[in-house]
Amino acid sequence: RPYHAVDPHLLEWVHIAETDSFLLAHQPYGAAPLDQRGRDAYVADTARVAVALGVPDPPRTEGELAQRIEQYRPELSSTAAARDAARFLLLTPPLPLVARAPYGVLAATSVAMLPGWARKPLLLPYFPPIESTVIRASGRVLVGGIRWALTAAR
Fold it and tell me: What is the Cα–Cα distance from 38 to 52, expressed in whole angstroms?
């Protein structure tokens, strides 16, 4: 399909997917989970940026965000190019050998956070017991180490 980077509909999809992903990742891997007020405030803050970028009416609460994602789901589909991109990013990233193990943990953590409806069309694996234990714990250790290193560097 033709694509134009300033199409407000496509801009909104990028905005809500990104906002949802950051919010979802912050809960288990952020320094402290956000309560409902904090999650809604985050969505509202990102809405101001979205408006400045051309999204006409972005969601301003977590509930509105979930509704918008549901509205976009019928439009989403997988393509060979999307599956190739996922395979490249997950299995053969252009990284030095020393960086591949930590990157692999972050990649596995990212995949584990995807809902089934997003994961299945990309042919990404699903291993609930491993994801909820080994991958989540590994992700917490790695992200905690990154947080520590960034704090120590200040």
Answer: 22
Q: Distance (Å, rounded) from C-alpha 140 to C-alpha 135?
A: 9
- Tokens coding 122: 């990309």
What is the C-alpha separation between 104 and 29, in angstroms, rounded? Answer: 16
Here the contacts of 79-85 (C-beta below 8 Å, separation 24 or greater) are: 82/121, 82/122, 83/122, 83/123
Of the candidates 54, 45, 44, which has an alpha carbon nearest to the alpha carbon of residue 13? 54
What CA dihedral angle connects 12, 17, 22 and 23, to 10 degrees?
90
What is the phi-psi region of residue 59: left when phi exceeds 0, alpha when psi lies from -120 to 50, beta otherwise? beta
| Per-residue model confidence (pLDDT) at position 6 | 87
pLDDT in tens, 2-36: 778 889 999 999 999 999 999 999 999 999 999 99
What tokens appear for 136 in the block? 């989540």
Closest CA to 65 of 116, 9, 118, 19: 19
| pTM tops 0.70, yes or no | yes
